[in-house]
Design goal:
With 179 residues, this protein is mostly helical. It has a single domain, classed as Hypothetical protein af1432, CATH 1.10.3210.10. The protein has eight helices and two strands; from the N terminus they run ββαααααααα. It has a two-stranded antiparallel ribbon. A hairpin with a 5-residue loop joins strand 1 and strand 2. Helix 1 runs antiparallel to helix 8. The longest helix is centred in the last third of the chain and has 23 residues. It is globular. The termini are far apart.
Length: 179
């Protein structure tokens, strides 16, 4: 059995993960240190910042706390697996299977009952909107012909890792306080 050692000191097996080993502190810390766009932005913009922006956008659209929490957690598996760019991921079916299994385990830990297809679609739309605006605001590139609507006022500036980690954890606590 192969494991990684997490920020909180857990031996974590990403392929055969168990719910008890998943920690939001590990997720927030790791995502605050991972750069979006595989590091191809002019400045560092963390996955944690991306997730926080997703929550902000979902809230501005009036989406439920469940969808907001799903937006916060939607890249959480990357804390344990890292990420692979979309074009490469298409060629790695086993990676996608492991990623899906782990992401489902993470959602199931904090979002019950399971997300509906409609909730997943809303989350996916927010994620795609953030991708568009990250490229537009950070790199000056429009990655699709039509600009998607944006409901929130967001920051795409560099943010210190500790600030991004703290923001992620604070949002997590707010969104899970009533669950």
């Amino acid at each position: 059995m192969s494991t990684i050692t997490t920020y909180t000191g857990r031996c974590f097996d990403p392929v055969y993960a168990v719910t008890e080993d998943i920690r939001v502190e590990d997720i927030a810390h790791a995502l605050s240190l991972m750069c979006r766009a595989n590091g191809h932005f002019p400045h560092f913009f963390s996955v944690a910042q991306h997730c926080v922006n997703c929550v902000t956008e979902a809230a501005a659209r009036g989406y439920s706390r469940r969808v907001q929490l799903a937006c916060l957690l939607h890249d959480a598996s990357e804390a344990y697996l890292s990420d692979i760019t979309r074009p490469v991921k298409e060629w790695l079916p086993y990676y996608r299977e492991v990623e899906h299994t782990l992401q489902t385990l993470i959602y199931d830990k904090w979002i019950t009952p399971a997300l509906t297809d409609e909730e997943r679609q809303l989350m996916s739309q927010v994620d795609d909107t953030m991708l568009y605006y990250e490229f537009k605001e950070i790199s000056g590139r429009e990655i699709q012909a039509e600009e998607p609507p944006l409901a929130a006022s967001l920051s795409f500036a560099f943010e210190d890792f500790a600030v991004a980690e703290t923001a992620y954890l604070e949002l997590f606590r707010q969104l899970t306080a009533e669950n």
